[in-house]
Each structure stands twice: as structure tokens, then as C-alpha cells.
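Support request from a user on the community tier.

User writes: "When I paste my C-alpha cells into the form, the page sometimes reloads and wipes my input. The last time it worked, I copied everything first. Here is what I submitted, just in case something in the input itself triggers the reload:"
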């Protein structure tokens, strides 16, 4: 059958492995159905497939037919939209947490072909009011945007949403969904064409990248944050050309292995598995996840920026007008408490809250205390903003943006996402 597929993963030149040709018709396992594809849509994910990049534990089995989304007909002629998310049949609850979660063109062939095999539940009857063309783009990007906006963000009509990279797949879906839901949509784009597209799709205001937005962030949260007096010899070594990369190379090759061996020894000695807050440093090093390479690159870039820009940042501290919550632990061995104290003194409106005994990996070792502190701080900031709003209504009604920025060491946050679900 006709198919558009990736012959192999090509990181440097993904389009070089794009083939428009013939592939065998799909095998249809028990419980699956065959869809004759009439429409399919492109996604940035197709570039990842051509690059051989996947979030799955197993590498992509090339040749792989591209395409996450589509619409078409079943063998009995009924019209269907293809729902892109698959997983283990016995998984219950949030699908995105299923370890077997996957979409088309990762483990099974995608939709850019005459036929695609899909689990029966993924062939959804197409409502009469939606054309096959529209249905074919309503998959991965729109579902992602829908979940971000309506399941996760908590935004309500009348509030403001800032969409960055306004001409992108998820961004264009967000703009349209946001406008339909009565949210004030602001979008940024690097190009004039991108901003015009965002406006055509309904964005109320658009901005170039880096342009100053008319309203400000209302709160900042710093977790075990860097600041005055935090740089030591290790930071200088990691930021130095050559030695930094060498340390990172050793770290991402050897450290996970050493850390896991050490953790296993400790667990054996204790006769039980370790809790996530025990030996958190070693756990972070030992289980860096598939993203550890990018994480290390980010870490090195941060180190260099830290040494280059710390002085400049120290000068800028006084200009931060938003209320700031500083969370720190006196026993943090990586960033000294004195840094948090100096930051608190230099920031015009800061509150320093100590979480004793958790060390540097605050979110990991004391997730509840950190989450409680953030929730209480945001509630207080919101109450204050509401009082200000009541006052300012008398002078013509200034509206407020509900927003906070959380800044933390990315390694300190590793593995702590669960703690923040529902934190807002
Ligand atoms: N697509 C999906 O179904 C999906 C699903 C889940 C998660 N995601 C994630 O969502 C994010 C966006 O994905 P997407 O598919 O929407 O990607 P996309 O279509 O490539 O859009 C990304 C947008 O970001 C902007 N951008 C690109 N490079 C940039 C740069 N160097 N500096 C500043 N802005 C830049 C561009 O917008 P402007 O040119 O307008 O500035 C671009 O259109 C990715 O992180 C992706 O992994 C995507």
C-alpha cells in the first residue's frame, strides 16, 4: 500500500530518511480494526520520528510509517476519527501515566498510509458536524492543548492566557480553544507572519519575542535558589571550558551506575526499599531518566551562565517588584543559607521560609512542606491582589493576571513532579 515513512533515524538530516513509497498492509491484531485513511495531519512529532527520537523505552523499529492523527472509514464503511493515545488494556485512571502509553508511529505504524490498524476503542465514530479534514487535525496537538487548558490550567473565562510560539501546532490549538472558552488570549511569535496568524485565529493581543508584556507576573517562588555568595570551586570547575564537559561526560556515564550500586547496598543493609526522600542526592544521580543528557547540558549551560551573569543578576535583584517566597534549608550543603538570607535582604518584597532538615533537594525530601508553603503563599498573594482590585475598581477597573514563576535547580526538582500535582 501507499505509505509515507521514515527509513531510519537521522538526527542530523531528518528529511533525508523520508520515503514516499510502498509498505505492506498492516496486520490487524485481535481487538483492533483497520481504518482506510482518507485524511491525516502533520505533527512536529513526525520530525522526531525521522530523527529517531522517541520518548518510548524501546527504540523505533524502522522503517516506520509516520503520522499520529487521521480520519477515515472502517471496513464496514462507518466514518471514524482516530484517537491517538494507546496503552495497556488493563490500565485504569489517567492514561498519560500508563507506562505503556504510546501514540501512532512510535511502537506501531502511523496514519500516513492507505490503511492503519488501531485498537477498536481508538476508532471513534465521527460526528456528522465534523468533516474528515477537520477531524484529522483534532488529535494529538489539540488533545494536548485541551488538557493543558481545561484539565490542568484552572483558567476561567475572563482570565488571561499567554501562548508562546503562537504559530506552532499546540499553540494554534490553544489560541482557538482559549478564544472559544472566553479567555483573553495573548500570543508571542518570532515573526510578523506568526503574529498575524495568531490574530487571525482569534488572539486578542500579540507580541514579538522578548517584547515587554503590559502586565506583570504577580509572584515569584525561589527554591534553594542561587544568589549572592553561592559560587564555590566546583561551580568554577564545571563552568570552565573542557573540564566542565569532561565532568559532565563522567557524570552521565559513571555516576548513575555508581549511585545505583550504592543505593542497592544501602537498601540491602536496611532490608527494605528506600523511600524517595532517603538519600535523595544519590537517587537523583542514580535515576536520571531518559532526559539525563539534555538535563546535563542544561546544567552545564546554567553553570556557565551563573558565573558569567551572577554579578548582573545581583544588580537586578532590587528591581523585582513582585512578592517573592524564598524556600531554603539551613542544612543545604550546595547553596549556603547565607545566599538565601542575602537574597531576602536584597529583594524589595521577600519572605524567607526555612524548611529544616531536608537539604538541597527540598521538593524531593519535603514535598508536602514545599507544596504547602507555595499554596499558602499564592493564596496570600491572591487575597492581596483581590483587595487591590477592589480598591482599583473605584478608579476604573484594573484587571489582574494570576501568575507565579517558580525557579528551582532542575536537578533539585527531578522526580518531584508528583508532589506538585494539584498545587496550582
Ligand atoms: N504537537 C503535539 O501534539 C505535542 C503534544 C505534546 C507536547 N508537545 C510539546 O509542545 C511543544 C510545542 O510543540 P508543537 O508541536 O506545537 O511544535 P511546533 O509546531 O514546532 O511549534 C513550536 C513553536 O515554537 C516557536 N519556536 C520554535 N523555535 C523557537 C526558538 N528557537 N525560539 C523561540 N520560539 C521558537 C515557533 O513559533 P513562532 O515561530 O511563532 O515563534 C514554533 O512554531 C513541544 O515542546 C512539544 O514537544 C507537542
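"...and here is what came back when it finally went through:"
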Amino acid at each position: 500500500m501507499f505509505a509515507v515513512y521514515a527509513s531510519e533515524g537521522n538526527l542530523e538530516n531528518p528529511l533525508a530518511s523520508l520515503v514516499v513509497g510502498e509498505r505492506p498492509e498492516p496486520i490487524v491484531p485481535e481487538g483492533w480494526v483497520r481504518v482506510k485513511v482518507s485524511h491525516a495531519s502533520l505533527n512536529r512529532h513526525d520530525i522526531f520520528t525521522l530523527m529517531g527520537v522517541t520518548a518510548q523505552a524501546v527504540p523505533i523499529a524502522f522503517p516506520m510509517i509516520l503520522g499520529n492523527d487521521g480520519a477515515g472509514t472502517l471496513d464496514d464503511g462507518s466514518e471514524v476519527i482516530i484517537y491517538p493515545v494507546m496503552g495497556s488494556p488493563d490500565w485504569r485512571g489517567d492514561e498519560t501515566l500508563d507506562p505503556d502509553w504510546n501514540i501512532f508511529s512510535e511502537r506501531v505504524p502511523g496514519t500516513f498510509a492507505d490503511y492503519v490498524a488501531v485498537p477498536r476503542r481508538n476508532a471513534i465514530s465521527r460526528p456528522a458536524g465534523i468533516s474528515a479534514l477537520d477531524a484529522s487535525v483534532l488529535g494529538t496537538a489539540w488533545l494536548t492543548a485541551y488538557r493543558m487548558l481545561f484539565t490542568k490550567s484552572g483558567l476561567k473565562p475572563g482570565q488571561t492566557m499567554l501562548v508562546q510560539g503562537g504559530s506552532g501546532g499546540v499553540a494554534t490549538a490553544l489560541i482557538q480553544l482559549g478564544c472559544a472558552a472566553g479567555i483573553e488570549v495573548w500570543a508571542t511569535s518570532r515573526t510578523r507572519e506568526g503574529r498575524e496568524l495568531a490574530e487571525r485565529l482569534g488572539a486578542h493581543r500579540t507580541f514579538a519575542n522578548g517584547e515587554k508584556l503590559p502586565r506583570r507576573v504577580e509572584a515569584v517562588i525561589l527554591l534553594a535558589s542561587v544568589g549572592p555568595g553561592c559560587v564555590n570551586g566546583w561551580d568554577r570547575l564545571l563552568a570552565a571550558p573542557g573540564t566542565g564537559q569532561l565532568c559532565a561526560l563522567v557524570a552521565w556515564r559513571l555516576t548513575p551506575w555508581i549511585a545505583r550500586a550504592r543505593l542497592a547496598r544501602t537498601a540491602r543493609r536496611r532490608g527494605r526499599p528506600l523511600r524517595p526522600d532517603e538519600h535523595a542526592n544519590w537517587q537523583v544521580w542514580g535515576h536520571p531518566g531518559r532526559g539525563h543528557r539534555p538535563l546535563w547540558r542544561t546544567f552545564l549551560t546554567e553553570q556557565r551562565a551563573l558565573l558569567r551573569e551572577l554579578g548582573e543578576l545581583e544588580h537586578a535583584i532590587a528591581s523585582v517588584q513582585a512578592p517573592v517566597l524564598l524556600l531554603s534549608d539551613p542544612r543545604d550543603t550546595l547553596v549556603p543559607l547565607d545566599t538565601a538570607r542575602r537574597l531576602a535582604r536584597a529583594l524589595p518584597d521577600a519572605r524567607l521560609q526555612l524548611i529544616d532538615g531536608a537539604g538541597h533537594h527540598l521538593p524531593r525530601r519535603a514535598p508536602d512542606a514545599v507544596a504547602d508553603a507555595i499554596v499558602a503563599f499564592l493564596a496570600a498573594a491572591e487575597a492581596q491582589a483581590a483587595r487591590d482590585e477592589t480598591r482599583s475598581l473605584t478608579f476604573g477597573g484594573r484587571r489582574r493576571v494570576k501568575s507565579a514563576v517558580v525557579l528551582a535547580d532542575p536537578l533539585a526538582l527531578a522526580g518531584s513532579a508528583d508532589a506538585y500535582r494539584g498545587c496550582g
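Agent notes: The reload is a front-end session timeout and is unrelated to the input. The two ends are 48 Å apart (CA to CA). The domain at 2-136 is CATH 3.90.180.10 (Quinone Oxidoreductase; Chain A, domain 1). Escalated to web team.
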